[in-house]
Design a protein that fits this description.
single chain; 173 residues; mainly alpha; two-stranded antiparallel ribbon; 4 strands; 38% helix; globular
Length: 173
């Protein structure tokens, strides 16, 4: 499901020193989930984000979080080319609360945070392609552009922060 990326931030965790098994629901508050596969995810080992950050947040309602194996982050979040993440504008109140709570609990969009800079750096090499796609909208039929975008998205699917890159190439941000 995750390949070699953090379940929360999409960073590379192929280096096992930068990875750990993360309990979606905190073990000290939900001990029966310690060995429950639906509660375990590969996560980066960052102190300032993702699972480790979540564990220091205190009590939270796990039902308000976007769960990586159940929910599609695309239904809740937009990854912007400057590295930020924002809730989708068309969300109902509950979905918006879930998006904001997920960003907060996992510290995914900290102002001037390292993750934001890492996403922005991952996006940078693909900005020329995104600009070319925008120009194509003026010259080519929509179907040709969509096929091109899908091809580019397949090329980056294995990369860290591929969601951020994909959103940039899809001209969502």
């Amino acid at each position: 499901m995750q390949d070699t990326r953090c379940a929360y931030c999409d960073a590379d965790i192929s280096n096992l020193k930068r990875a750990h098994i993360e309990h979606f629901r905190q073990r000290d508050r939900y001990p029966q989930g310690t060995f429950d596969w639906t509660n375990l995810f590969g996560s980066c080992n960052r102190e300032d984000a993702c699972g480790k950050f979540k564990d220091d947040c205190g009590p939270y309602d796990h039902n308000l979080l976007i769960k990586p194996d159940v929910d599609d982050p695309d239904d809740f979040l937009i990854f912007v080319k400057d590295g930020t993440i924002i809730p989708r504008a068309d969300l109902n109140d509950r979905a918006r609360r879930r998006a904001l709570e997920t960003l907060r609990i996992f510290n995914l969009d900290a102002q001037n945070g390292a993750l934001r800079a890492m996403r922005q750096e991952a996006i940078r090499p693909h900005l020329d392609t995104a600009h070319a796609i925008m120009e194509m909208f003026e010259e080519f039929p929509q179907i040709d552009i969509q096929e091109f975008i899908e091809g580019e998205i397949q090329k980056i699917a294995h990369l860290p922060f591929s969601t951020s890159i994909r959103h940039t190439l899809s001209v969502r941000s």
